[in-house]
Amino acid sequence: MSLGKDLTGLEHMTPEQIRLILDTAEPFKEVSERPIKKVPALRGKTIVNLFFEASTRTRVSFEFAEKRLSADTVNVAATGSSVSKGETLVDTARNLEAMRIDMVVIRHPSSGAAEFLGDRIASNVINAGDGKHEHPTQALLDLLTIRDKHGKIEGLKVCLVGDVLHSRVARSNLWGLTKLGAEVAVCGPWTLLPRGIEELGVKVFGRIEEAIEWADVLNILRLQLERMEKGFIPSVREYYRVFGVTPERLERSPRAITIMHPGPMNRGVEIDSRVADGPHSVILDQVTNGVAVRMAVLYLLAGGRADLADAAKGGGSE
Amino acid sequence: MNQPILLQGGRIIDPSRDMDQAGDVLIQDGKIAGVGRGVTAPDGALVRNVNGKVIAPGLIDLHVHLREPGNEDEETVASGARAAAAGGFTAICAMPNTDPVTDNQAAVGFIVRQSGRAGLASVHPIGAISIGQKGERLAEFGEMVGAGAVAVSDDGKPIVSSHLMRTALEYARTFDIPVADHCEEPTLSAGGVMHEGLVATRLGLKGIPYAAEEIMVARNVLLAELTGGHVHLCHISARGSVAIIREAKERGIRVTAEATPHHLVLTDVACEEYDTNAKMNPPLREAMDIEALQGALKEGVIDCIASDHAPHAYDEKEAAFDDAPFGIIGLETAFAVAHTELVGGGLFTLPDLIRRMSTEPARVFHLPGGTLASGAVADIVVLDPGAKWTVDPATFHSKSRNTPFAGRALTGRAILTIVAGAIIHEL
Fold first, then answer.
1. CA-CA distance, B163 to B155, in Å (whole number)?
2. Measured between alpha carbons, how far is A225 from A192 in angstroms, rounded to an integer?
3. Is the Cβ of A132 closer than 8 Å to some Cβ of chain B?
4. Which of B204, B321, B323 sits opposite A168 (nearest CB)?
5. pLDDT tens track of chain B, all 427 residues?
6. I want to staple A114 with a disulfide (CB 3.0 to 4.6 A). Which of A96, A127, A298, B13 is the partner?
7. What letter would DSSP give residue B53?
């Protein structure tokens, strides 16, 4: 089984492919715990991190994953370019191709940008977030974190809370979770829930109290503060009062709900600090797992065999 | 003067007179000189045997975008008129969103002159409603009509100001021209790139809701009622709009409407894989909308088919979905797409379709043509309803290639197009 050339989203992946990535990530977790955090699996490979949108966490996570696999990496930040985005993307693709690279990690504000690039270059393309479409490696690290915490994904009730409308994290999570047999719900103000989402087999909660009563896991999405300016919500203050995940609200649940957040957090807006830093929060585990999952994706797309991932970590001197 | 032409032994379909019979058509001095069985050819006449083919009044398209002046690399009046001829159209109406905008008599006269120079399908200019299509001050309708404009529109943009729409409808009454509006409530559609629904949710693209169109359709109907003016509603896409138009017509309000071939046959599923050739405004909707539009066209609630032919350069459409412009071309596929889906699908007869693509558009914009009556201008198309062909954009006469129908197998094609007695296209 292979992943194909590109990783642009989870919607069209099979459950087996998703499990392959998660299973391959397991042996790579240990690499980051070593004093010398480097294995030779991707030595000689050239990877471009092409970011048309600001990012710290995802870019750094990819860069660590690449470096710990011994790949040569170049970061290109193309934000604020005066050229129109479409033209930049086509020309950038052609120029990268001409430099004989092996992989591109792309983040872009337009939905579909990763597929667009993947269709036009021979190198492997990894989607690090395209518009409101997908952010597959984020969902994969979320899945790995849930599996670590609960020992399984199938049958768990996972609710994505907040700005689902504009969230690529939510879409990728939705596909990944449903493919692996979890029950999925979304919760947020109706202004921030996309049309037709219930047709995807997702429960919809208009009130956070209902979501808390139902869920085993809450994945709390970041509220972009610009949503307020665009009129989707009246104020951050009211958002916290109506939708904020607080210890008082969580106390009403019969279960200890696992708390997740893709970051960066707005403390005191979508999530109370006592929840973010509380005993059931796995928010920092998500970050740690991000590096291992991205190592697995890079390794597999480069043609690495899952059953040799453990061995690939070894000496491998040439 | 062109030599007389005798079209011999065809199936004559003239919806203007409910005619559907076998016979001949004689064209002389640019006019239809005889229709019926056993018409004899005068000396020197060009005789074409059209056995098994259909002789019909030339197709008329009320809604095309030619890019001259401004973007002649994408389309010119001549290349658009050439594409029209190949598609069986004898007359097309050019929207004024050129650069600069066609908002004055000199600009309107330029289109008329370019059309005359090309000598292909007649290109009738549509003048702008507002100066520069800015939605502020009325353009000089009277001067533009004097120079050849057949209607006014700010198409590409909606008329946002209800006051401006009201005054346009009132003022246009003097010249007895329709006011054509692109119905879109811009605060609802802002940032949207496709139909708001499940496909947009999955693709992560911002949607344009039904209400963005329906609100403006309802407003325009109310303003037509208020003013007594004739409002023409461009490219209707939503089944809710159909219901509003049906009710308005029942109440006797002067409203006419058009639908495009693509809105009649494609849904938002065509946007899958971010195909920018499925990006247009209004967007492709859902299967229930197709059903409602086809039914409305059959009934006459929607008066006619118009292509909304919108050429764009390759580089512009070769982009991420959000960044690509709206619009597709349609002149060379309109008849075949409609024929394949509507007639092939059994809902329409061929005379029904010709009525919606020729006779009705002529009536709506008060244009010559749309009939084979003796003495009428000889704008005629000969159609081969059995011709099977596959859409290959490389063979288009249009300067642009942006079509969602590339590679599609279609049935039906224009094989001979005659304008004012002159053959302008022959396959």
1. 17
2. 13
3. yes
4. B204
5. 689 999 999 999 999 999 999 999 999 999 999 999 989 989 999 999 999 999 999 999 999 999 999 999 999 999 999 999 999 999 999 999 999 999 999 999 999 999 999 999 999 999 999 999 999 999 999 999 999 999 999 998 999 999 999 999 999 999 999 999 999 999 999 999 999 999 999 999 999 999 999 999 999 999 999 999 999 999 999 999 999 999 999 999 999 999 999 999 999 999 999 999 999 999 999 999 999 999 999 999 999 999 999 999 998 999 899 999 999 999 999 999 999 999 999 999 999 999 999 999 999 999 999 999 999 999 999 999 999 999 999 999 999 999 999 999 999 999 999 999 999 999 9
6. A127
7. S
Catalytic residue among B61, B155, B289, B308: B308
Instruction: Residue B315: list chain A partners with CB under 8 A.
Output: 87, 90
Nearest residue to B403 via CA among B336, B341, B354, B342: B336
Strands B422-426 and B89-94: unpaired
Question: Among positive and negative, which fits the CA dihedral B394, B195, B152, B250?
Answer: positive
> Strand (E) positions, B76-178?
89-94, 122-127, 151-153
Q: CA-to-CA distance for A250 and B147, rounded, in angstroms?
A: 73
Q: B47, exposed or middle or buried, with CB in 10 Å at 0-12, 13-18, 19+?
A: middle
Q: Which residue in B220, B247, B246, B244 sits closest to B233, CA to CA?
A: B220
What ipTM did this prediction achieve? 0.89
Tokens of B190: 């802002």
| Amino acid identity, position B244 | I
- Identify the residue among B203, B208, B271 best suited for mutation to test binding to A, counting A beta carbons within 10 A and taking the highest: B203
Q: Assign residue B206 a region: left if phi > 0, alpha if psi is -120 to 50, beta otherwise? A: beta
Tokens 């929607």 belong to B302
Of B254, B265, B290, the residue nearest B363 (C-alpha) = B254
To the nearest whole Å, the CA of A108 is away from the closest chain B CA by 10
Nearest to B324 among A86, A115, A196 (CB): A86
Active site residue B308: yes
Tally of residues, chain A: 318
Nearest-CB residue to A111 (from B198, B204, B209)? B204
Q: What is the H or E stretch that residue B34 is in?
A: strand B31-36
pLDDT band at A303 (very low <50, low <70, confident <90, very high): confident
Q: What is the pLDDT of residue A79?
A: 65
What is the dihedral angle through the alpha carbons of B278, B283, B287, B292, rounded to the nearest 10 degrees? -130
| Nearest residue to B67 (alpha-carbon basis) of B54, B81, B53 | B81
The three-class DSSP label of residue B123 is strand
Determine the residue type at A316.
G
Tokens of B16: 């203007």
Pairing of strands B5-14, B54-57: parallel
If you count DSSP H runs as helices and E runs as strands, how many of each does chain B have, helices first?
14, 18
Can you read off the two tokens belonging to residue A286?
């998500």
> What is the C-alpha to C-alpha distance for residues B293 and B372, in angstroms, rounded to an integer?
28
| SS (HEC) of A214-255 | HCCEEEECCCCCHHHHCCCCCCHHHHHHHHCECHHHHHCCCC
Give the H or E element holding residue A84: none
d(CA A161, CA A171): 12
pLDDT at residue A318 above 50?
A: no
